[in-house]
């Protein structure tokens, strides 16, 4: 490393994001050792892109970038955005980056004390979120300086801060250059500020118009101020033709500026894991949501009783002259029930609210307004007609058949409500007929339709609707929770610039994802244990099969949610869009898994599409294990679980390919 060699040399650099969006157009730049280099230019001229290429975050399309260091640790990078973990304390934040830079604990403490004094930082136990904007800017600078790098690259470090703090930062720059022979590169669009630099580069439209000391530039172009120099060069550039699509050079394969010696380092991994753990503890709202939201929603499902969803009364039409005297004489000696209509109403009232009306028209008006679930009405000779049916059976007269029939008019606008009401009406009538048969020694089978279900192949006769509904809701809930948890945390780090700062410091995407996955596996297990204890222990949900097998199936679903969340986060990158995708996926999951409608009732095309969604076959296995008692050794069970696991593996491969190809600039 020679002192007369430039620290950074950029030659004939080209970079664009689309054919018409050229960012760098043949740029040349030289940064000398032990100087402050000010890169001056308006917003959008390509300053930040150029710095990203120098630190190795982006590759040039053509041209070269040479940095006189073999190790990335010799560079300190301060992005334009703060890119700070607001939940951490100053000490935790500096320690985190110190460990990423592979500093010893003793060296970290030493540098922390030096920087606290140099930058006049707040107490180190203060959380970053509780610091002022100027203090946060100095904390960001402390991160850049923590490992004492030789080259400092700072993207607009003084933007948006007061003049006093700005002067303090420049004093720090001068001291670093004078006492430690550091090289500092700053970008700015303030011409007055750039005058303090030893050497400046004037950049516009992706080209460096000129570079030299401020005084030499003013002498060269015979101007009294840098403003005049920049104006003169800008006017000259306007008269020249820019780079056209035709002139743009072919893309060249770029060698890495810094070779990553290790794609996975234990020290960096543990630092990231510890940082994530601190974030988890200090964001209790998010953590509690992830841990307990599925349990809360599923416990609501478990404690819901669909049998009682109908609260609207049913209307019974009873003629005004129809009475139910207790001392009336029964129509047969064997009977103790004098009037079947009255007895039926008593039975129905014992399980459901009943309103009596004296005319059908009156009841119908109330039902049309939605205040009745249905209407029941009887013939005046209902008692005689029913008795003749039981006594004469096939010899019953047509008149008796008509008189012994109960008529209903139900509100069929809600299928579940109508279904439940018809069932209740039928069961009440069946109970009445059973009583009549017992009193007159008729065979009680006469009171039933010729169908009996003594045993069930799977399940039980007294199982409730929610028992079969629950398995189709478990996996969509846990999938959605882990999708949001993994995607939102990663998207937040991308949009806030944290991920860029991590990677510039040397943290690899492998270490980032590994630390996130390990912590989320802990969250998964806490979430699942609590969920199983509540829904199967306290709520008494039915589990016929193995708890361990169902637990494993839930974990497979959550891993799929985690992987899918990471994929969406690195593609979409914006937290709002990630949340919107999550809501859409939630509806897809509920539909395909049979929560909104049974899979068997879906259109064939929807069923085929559903089986391509890895959560669907896994949900089928969960249903078969929990309610049918199937074991993991059964072909249908383990093949569906394997299909779900392969879906997760496929997404992991896609993530790896996207990161390897650098298509997404992650």
Automatic annotation (TrEMBL):
<dbReference type="GO" id="GO:0016020">
    <property type="term" value="C:membrane"/>
</dbReference>
<keyword id="KW-0067">ATP-binding</keyword>
<keyword id="KW-0472">Membrane</keyword>
<keyword id="KW-0812">Transmembrane</keyword>
<dbReference type="GO" id="GO:0140359">
    <property type="term" value="F:ABC-type transporter activity"/>
</dbReference>
<dbReference type="Pfam" id="PF12698">
    <property type="entry name" value="ABC2_membrane_3"/>
</dbReference>
<dbReference type="Pfam" id="PF00005">
    <property type="entry name" value="ABC_tran"/>
</dbReference>
<dbReference type="GO" id="GO:0005524">
    <property type="term" value="F:ATP binding"/>
</dbReference>
<keyword id="KW-1133">Transmembrane helix</keyword>
<dbReference type="InterPro" id="IPR013525">
    <property type="entry name" value="ABC2_TM"/>
</dbReference>
<protein>
    <submittedName>
        <fullName>Uncharacterized protein</fullName>
    </submittedName>
</protein>
<dbReference type="InterPro" id="IPR003593">
    <property type="entry name" value="AAA+_ATPase"/>
</dbReference>
<dbReference type="InterPro" id="IPR027417">
    <property type="entry name" value="P-loop_NTPase"/>
</dbReference>
<dbReference type="GO" id="GO:0016887">
    <property type="term" value="F:ATP hydrolysis activity"/>
</dbReference>
<dbReference type="InterPro" id="IPR017871">
    <property type="entry name" value="ABC_transporter-like_CS"/>
</dbReference>
<keyword id="KW-0547">Nucleotide-binding</keyword>
<dbReference type="InterPro" id="IPR003439">
    <property type="entry name" value="ABC_transporter-like_ATP-bd"/>
</dbReference>
